[in-house]
Amino acid sequence: MPNILIKVPTGAFSDQQRARLLTRVSETAIAHERIGNDPRQRSLCWVLIEEVRAADWTCGGLGVHAHAIPCIVMVKVPAGVLDEQMRKDYVLGLHQAIEESAEPDDGRMLMTSIQLTDIPDGTWGANGSLWRLADFTRAAGYRHLLPGA
Hints:
Catalyzes the ketonization of 2-hydroxymuconate stereoselectively to yield 2-oxo-3-hexenedioate. Keywords: Isomerase. The chain is α/β, with parallel strands linked by helices. Helix content is 32%, strand content 28%. It has helices at residues 15-32, 39-42, 84-101, 133-140; strands at residues 3-9, 46-52, 68-78, 109-119, 124-126, 129-131. The strands form two sheets. A four-stranded mixed beta sheet has the order 2-1-3-4, with helices on one face. The two termini are 18 Å apart.
């Protein structure tokens, strides 16, 4: 049940590219967190793209937007869902999903900064209640955490 916020400079992606980005990042998150296939389980994966004015974004004090697409991705996931290998695979998968969303002949370099943040057990509220890992596992159907996995 990730909450994923993607920050990109305004205009870095067209409407069609943003739609691809939302789809590919969602699919990547669902696969890497091993969320169940039921549409109710998949609906717990929230992805949001936020555009920031390019003039308000620098890399090393410089505006790089003519040559690069900087992209910050913040993923919040319940603590205990991901192990070390899953984290490594997830970061690579997210980078690739973003890369595949850009036009192949764009010519700008993709620069991603991806942060996976574990939310401590019992500190994530959902629909007015505090949830624990067992609640998330039941709701999201984390295949690797279900009994008998």
